[in-house]
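Researcher: Here's my situation. A collaborator sent me these components and asked whether they could plausibly form a single complex. I don't have experimental data yet, so a predicted model of the whole assembly would be a useful starting point for our discussion.
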Amino acid sequence: MPILSLMILLPVAAALLLLALPGDDAARAGRARMVALATTLVEFAAGIWLWLNFDQTTAAFQFSENLPLFAPYVSWSLGLDGIALMLIMLSVFLMPLCVLASWVAVKKRVPEYMAAFLLMESLMIGTFAARDIFLFYLFFEGGLIPMFLIIGIWGGARRIYASYKFFLYTLLGSVLMLVAMLWMVGVAGTADIGELSNHDFPKEAQFWLFLAFFASFAVKMPMWPVHTWLPDAHVEAPTAGSVILAGVLLKLGGYGFIRFSLPMFPDASAQLIWLVFGLSMVAVVYTSLVALVQQDMKKLIAYSSVAHMAFVTGGLFALNTQGIEGAMVMMLSHGLVSGALFLCVGVIYDRLHTREISRYGGLADTMPKYALVLLFFTMASVGLPATSGFVAEFLVLLGMYQTSTWATFVLTTGIILGAGYMLWLYARVAYGKAAGEDTRAMPDLDAREIAILAPIILATLWMGIYPKSFQQPMKPAIAAVVARLEGRELATVPTDMTLSAARPALPSPAHAAEGHH
Amino acid sequence: MHPIFASIAIAGPETILTLGSLAALMLGSFTPKHRALVVTSLFAVAILAVAGFSLMDAPAGRSIAFDGLYIADDFSAFLKVIIMAAAAASVLLALPWLNESGTGRFEYPVLLLLAALGMAMMVSANDLLTLYVGLELAALPSYVLAAFSRADDRSAEAGLKYFVLGALASGILLYGVTLVYGFAGSTQLDVIAGLVAGQPERSLGLLFGIVFILAGLAFKVSAVPFHMWTPDVYEGAPTPVAAFFSAAPKAAALGLMARVLVVAFPGKVAADWQQIIMVIALASMVLGAVAAVAQTNIKRLLAYSSIANIGFALVGLAPGTPAGISALLFYVTVYVAMTLGSFLVVLQLRRPDGGTVEQMADLAGLSKTQPRLAAALTIFMFSLAGIPPLLGFWPKFAVFQAAIASGQIGLAIIGFIASVVAAFYYLRLIKIMYFDEPAVVLASEGSKVNGAMIAACALFCSPIGMLALSPLAVATARAAAALFPA
């Protein structure tokens, strides 16, 4: 059974159905919500089926399909390895929650809204499942269209500016990648991602190819200094749009690094870790400081996303198993936690229609259930043990320490700063006095909102307490990536990045080598 | 059989068009006036269809007719199919407008038939003189068409402007032809190639000849720096005429350009014209993208869009390889569908006062008042912007793939960046339709035929059109191979 094709085509079919629904506006809206929820739940069930039937012992692509449907340009070639599986799981898990979160908040053009989300879902699944490099690009870029419409039609006050910025920023990054892809396929003679991952491109070429891909993935990630589209897009997007943006779209950058940059350009990756580490270090400290002074809740969480994504890039470019695994867990964890934080903001935004932090306060008294949930996700974002954030940060730092102690040191300060802005946010929102009568009058979580947030709480705890369920499927695929990187790493890692002051703590291999001199 | 009859048989489509246009002229004159336009139009469509289908049983391979003046091969057949289809669509799409505006004279389809004949000659020209005759035959009806609504000052101005500049370009082209004849010794394309290859060193006069010919042709395809007439003529000419200008003549002129350059000037002179093509391709892409940003008139916007698109298509010509020519033909095919579709949507809309839509601001909130037309125009805009998975992405992909395969990576990078700039103004139209509130409520003119053509173009440009990728790739590759005799 071509399960992946079905998973990609079902939301498209449902979206077309939504647009053709009969009836007046109210009836159409009601039906559209039901159809969208049913579709996303079926997709989630299909995702579970994939996970259960996934062979966790191999790095090979599974559930493969290959149809030369669009030859000679691109072939309909799909398949999953563990990394792609986990990211697809994240997408199909968040999707029904997004539909539920928009149940009452979105009032205008509901069928079109749901259709855009379903299209988004199918493009995301396609991105992770594509095995042809151009098919990947097709899904990767195609996602811009529904997101542009979601931000632009259903977004906030500055939605138009934000939608343009989102679209053009990411498009500009991507076209350079396309040039590189065209060149690579011309040289290697294949568009299959698996074969390209084992093709040794000349070292000088790798440098330029790496930069071209970097232009795209760094924007998608987003990395400092090309992160500025993210706060704008987040602030203006509707709640569910923010969840998908943070939960899944930001993962495309990290996925791109691990699927393309690391295995296809291993030499360039090893040579350019100073670039990635440098940008990650700046990002963590700078965006954390920026997050501290935000007045707008969504903007604060958006900046915290940039900081968390810097952990992902740091972990990936540690170029070892712990770092890459940590980066993957960080992506999954961030998808859950920051998605949930945006949902939490959405809950109070639906009541008071403002995201100004100063307009809230004292919610621990008036909305105790909400305050508890928010506390949980604040802690998960900070990286408290037993939540998924801890596992991720710990693994990333462990991996990075072997490559560069200096970068690890700077990133660790990011954790402290992160605790600072998140706890301060919580204090201002949940403690103290309510800012006004309307704030005090806000009702606590209703059943629908609990139904949205509870699954994410469970998943976050599961990933924090028994991360093996999530790591195990990815291990063979990550091992394959690390195998590609081995041997190139040691010769090119700039050892001077390590600080002598950090030496006594735990000597890294590079230091041990120095010690023999 | 006398050779002239064999030649006429080879030039079947042109023969049908010649006789057909004369018959259409008679038919229009002798039909009662209130029915003349519809009857002649339907007759013209039938003639174009017959001419198009007559290509089907043309003999495979290449046939030369009229002592080497005319060639029929896969390349010309492919382009003729596009030209006939685009011309037929142009005849049909004008009908509602012609009836409404009171300019409904039956000469309109006849002029289009004559222009189609000229364009068919252009893509089948195997001699610089046939080329010139075809070009002029296509151009003269176009000048008249541009000025078709005589009462409108802007239309008359457009016609005059087009005529004066077009005549100038024809003069330059003809001068280039004489230079090439003088320095190479022939006007027949394949003979020129042989003679040039035999010359011991590259002659400067020949280079001048190539440059002049290219300048004349660049005017016809409205490539920078010979593009200045395009926005003015598109804006002034009646909208259906602008739609026609943006489709079939571009396909014909690009085909002609490819044939002249690849067949007559291969080998050592190729590097010379490749540089020129690269420069005008780059300039067209960049200027088309940048200048369109400030436009407020839809027709001017589409004019700049067609300048930019011609630039992208020329990227396929720059390498001078079979893959590049194949990509060029692919680009032309998809471009014709995208641009005709966009014009059709604009033509379908009516302001409350009954006028056609000209200003972009008129489209505000179209997604609420005319959701289907807005959706179709959105597909065309995203497709023109080259966003996957819409079909418009793939021709860009193909031309840049050809460019990169022959080492022109810089051209590809600048081209893609220009396409991002261009995406900005295509997005603006979508923004106006979807994000803004309606200012005036636009009505749909309601023509079923035009509605069906919009639907067909939209379907072709949507991701479903990707199913046509494989057959199109086979057809364009075969057509391109005809220019490169083994």
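Model: Some features of this prediction you could bring to your collaborator: The first strand of chain A starts at residue 62 and ends at 70. The first helix of chain A runs from residue 3 to 19.
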